[in-house]
Design brief:
Elements (H helix, E strand, L loop, with lengths): L37 H4 L17 H7 L5 E6 L19 H13 L3 E6 L14 H17 L4 E3 L9 H11 L5 E3 L13 E2 L1 E6 L2 E9 L1 H5 L7 H4 L5 H15 L2 E7 L2 H10 L5 E3 L13 E3 L4 E4 L7 E7 L9 E5 L9 H18 L1 H4 L27 H8 L6 H6 L10 H4 L27 H4 L3 H5 L4 H7 L3 H6 L17 H4 L38
Parallel strand pairs: 1-2, 2-3, 3-4, 4-5, 7-8, 8-9, 9-11
Antiparallel strand pairs: 1-12, 6-7, 10-11, 12-13
C-alpha cells in the first residue's frame, strides 16, 4: 500500500465499510467478462497476479483446447469456505453457482464429466469472520454442493477436521451422499465410518477409467487440537508406506492414475517424483489465483502436477481419451461472470437454504461477543450509535450521511437475495460494534447501530458522550489516519476480496472530517445521556443550529 502524508488532514477517520466477506451477498451478474475479472486482476494477499481464462470466452474454445474430448476430469479444491463471491465489486471470480453452470454447459454438449476435490472446503472455523457456528453451516452446505455436483472423491483435509473431527465426519456421512468417498491412502477408515472412507476409488467416465487416491500430511493430523483425532491417528501412516500398494492396485484397474496431496506443495512435488506411475498430481496452492495455465511436467513429461488455486476461483480440467493417447491436455478454467447462468438447484442451496438456516439458527444474534478494549487499554465504554454523536459533531455527522457507510445496512435489506441481513459475514461490515458486547444484535434490538458508523473506527462512545471534555475518554477514541493504516482498521472490510483497489491515498479524502465542527457552543461540553432507540437518520441531515 502506498504511503501518504496525512499531516494536512491530521484528523480522525471513519471506517470505510463495504459489503462483507465472501458469502455475504451473491456474485455480481454484471461487469467484465471472465477472461479479465476486475477483482482477479489485483494481486492477492501474497502478491500473485490472476491467470487469464484459457477457454477464450467460449465453451467451444475450451473443448478445442482440451482436444474436443467426450469426457473430462474436473479437479477443484481449497474452497476455504467461499461458497460464492460476495458481489462487493464487479468481476469477482468463482463460486458454486458458477461451478454448477460450468458443468451444465459441458453436459448439454454431451461431454461426460468426473469430479474430484482436494478438500479444505473450510478453513480455521475458530477464526472465521461469521463465527464458528456459521463456518460449520457453510461446511455442511459445501458438502451438500459436492453431492449436487455428483463428485466421486474428496481428499481428507486437516482443515476440514477443524470443525471437530467427529462433527466433520458426521456431516460428511449425512450430506455427501452414497457415491462420493473421503479418500486417504495413508489413513485407515475410522470405526463406524468405513462406508464413507476409501484408500482409492476408480471412477468410470465415458470409455475411460480414472483411478484416484490421496494422502494427508501425518504431522497436520497429529497437530489437530481435538480429542477425537484418534479416530484418524489410529491407522495413520507415512505417505511412502501407503502409496506403493495403492498405486499398483490402481494401475491394474484404471487408465489414468491421480494423486491428491493434502500437505505442503513441496510434499506433492516430492511424491510425484518418487512415484512416476501417477499421471496427475494435485498439490495445494501457494496463492489464491492460478499463476500458471499449464501443468508442471515431471518425470520426463509423464506426470502433470497442478494447483487449482484457493477460494474456488478456478477449476482444473483434463481432456480424457484412451490410455494409448498422449498425456491428457489441461486447462485452468476461470469461473468468471461468463458462467452466471441460472444455476437453479445450486442457487437454491447456497442462496436460499443456507441463509435461511442462518436465520433460523439466529447466528447473528447468538454469535459469541467479546469486551471492547481501546488502544490505550481502557475498557467499560458501550456502543451508543451515531445519533448520539451528532449533537456535538453535527457537521461531521452530515459528512457521514453523504457516504455509503450511512446506508450499509439498508443495502442488505434491499438485496434481491433473501435473508442477507441474517448472514454474520455480511453484517459484520454493515453494522456497528458487531462481535462486541453492547454492539449490534439485531434490527429489532439495536436499530441505533445499523449501518457502518463512527464507533466502528473510534470505539464505543458512551463515556465520551457523557463527559465530552474528559481527556482520558477522548484519548480512548482518538484515531489518526496513521493509526488506522498501521492497525489495518479499514482493511477489516476493505480486504483483497471485497475492495481489491482500496488505497488510503484515494479513499481517505472522501471521508476526512478534521475541522468540520468548532465546538464553540457551551452545550457540546456538558454531555448527554445516550438514547438507544432510533437508528441513524436515513439520508437526512440534522436540523441547523
Amino acid at each position: 500500500m502506498r504511503r501518504i502524508d496525512f499531516r494536512p488532514w491530521a484528523g480522525l477517520v471513519l471506517s470505510l465499510a463495504v459489503l462483507g466477506y465472501v458469502g455475504c451477498t451473491s456474485s455480481s451478474s454484471s461487469g467484465p467478462e471472465a477472461g479479465a475479472p476486475t477483482a482477479g486482476k489485483a494481486a492477492d494477499a501474497a502478491g500473485s497476479p490472476a491467470a487469464a481464462d484459457t477457454s477464450g470466452g467460449s465453451d467451444s474454445k475450451l473443448l478445442a483446447n482440451l482436444g474436443n474430448p467426450s469426457a473430462v476430469l474436473v479437479v477443484s479444491g481449497e474452497m476455504n469456505g467461499y461458497l460464492e463471491p460476495c458481489g462487493c465489486t464487479q468481476g469477482q471470480v468463482g463460486g458454486l453457482i458458477r461451478r454448477y453452470d460450468f458443468f451444465e454447459r459441458l453436459h448439454k454438449q454431451g461431454v461426460k464429466t468426473a469430479q474430484i476435490d482436494l478438500g479444505s472446503l473450510t478453513r480455521d472455523p475458530a477464526a472465521a469472520r461469521g463465527g464458528f457456528e456459521q463456518a460449520k453451516m457453510k461446511f455442511d452446505h459445501a458438502i451438500k454442493a459436492l453431492k449436487l455436483l455428483d463428485y466421486s472423491a474428496v481428499a481428507l483435509s486437516p482443515e476440514d477436521m477443524k470443525v471437530g473431527v467427529g462433527e466433520a465426519l458426521a456431516l460428511f456421512v449425512n450430506s455427501l451422499g452414497e457415491k462420493a468417498r473421503i479418500v486417504a491412502a495413508n489413513v485407515d477408515a475410522p470405526a463406524g465410518f468405513e462406508a464413507m472412507f476409501a484408500k482409492s476409488v476408480v471412477v468410470p467416465v465415458g470409455s475411460v477409467k480414472v483411478g484416484v487416491t490421496a494422502v494427508v500430511d501425518p504431522e497436520a493430523i497429529e497437530a489437530l487440537n481435538d480429542p477425537d483425532k484418534n479416530l484418524l491417528t489410529a491407522g495413520l501412516k507415512r505417505p511412502n508406506d501407503a502409496i506403493p500398494a495403492v498405486l499398483a492396485d490402481l494401475e491394474s484397474k484404471s487408465d489414468y492414475q491421480v494423486l491428491m496431496v493434502q500437505g505442503p506443495p513441496a510434499m506433492a512435488r516430492s511424491l510425484a517424483g518418487a512415484y512416476p506411475g501417477f499421471d496427475i498430481v494435485v498439490a495445494r496452492s501457494d496463492y489464491d489465483d492460478v499463476l500458471k495455465q499449464e501443468a508442471e511436467l515431471l518425470n520426463d513429461g509423464k506426470t502433470q502436477l497442478i494447483q487449482v488455486g484457493r477460494k474456488g476461483k478456478f477449476l482444473g480440467v483434463f481432456g480424457l481419451s484412451p490410455k494409448d493417447a498422449k498425456r491428457p491436455p489441461y486447462v485452468a478454467v476461470n469461473l468468471g461472470t461468463r458462467y452466471d447462468g441460472p444455476g437453479t438447484p445450486m442457487k437454491q442451496l447456497i442462496q436460499d437454504d443456507y441463509r435461511d438456516a442462518l436465520r433460523q439458527a439466529g447466528v447473528v444474534e447468538n454469535i459469541p461477543r467479546r469486551n471492547y478494549i481501546a488502544a490505550n487499554g481502557s475498557t467499560g465504554a458501550t456502543f451508543v450509535g451515531a445519533e448520539n454523536c451528532k449533537s456535538c459533531h453535527r457537521e461531521t455527522y452530515k459528512k457521514w450521511l453523504t457516504t455509503p457507510h450511512a446506508h450499509a445496512f439498508e443495502s442488505l435489506l434491499k438485496d434481491k437475495k433473501p435473508n442477507v441481513a441474517f448472514d454474520a459475514e455480511c453484517v459484520t461490515c454493515h453494522t456497528t460494534g458487531f462481535e462486541y458486547e453492547t454492539g449490534w444484535v439485531s434490527e429489532k434490538k439495536t436499530p441505533y447501530l445499523a449501518a457502518n458508523q463512527c464507533e466502528n473506527c473510534h470505539g464505543p462512545g458512551s463515556k465520551h458522550v457523557a463527559d465530552p471534555d474528559n481527556r482520558e475518554f477522548r484519548a480512548a477514541m482518538n484515531l489518526t489516519p496513521e493509526k488506522a493504516e498501521k492497525n489495518r482498521v479499514c482493511l477489516g472490510c476493505h480486504d483483497i476480496d471485497n475492495s481489491p483497489h482500496f488505497d488510503m491515498t484515494s479513499y481517505y479524502p472522501k471521508i476526512a472530517h478534521k475541522g468540520l465542527d468548532d465546538y464553540q457552543d457551551p452545550k457540546v461540553h456538558k454531555g448527554i445521556t445516550p438514547k438507544l432507540t432510533a437508528g441513524p437518520t436515513d439520508g437526512k441531515a440534522p436540523a441547523g443550529k
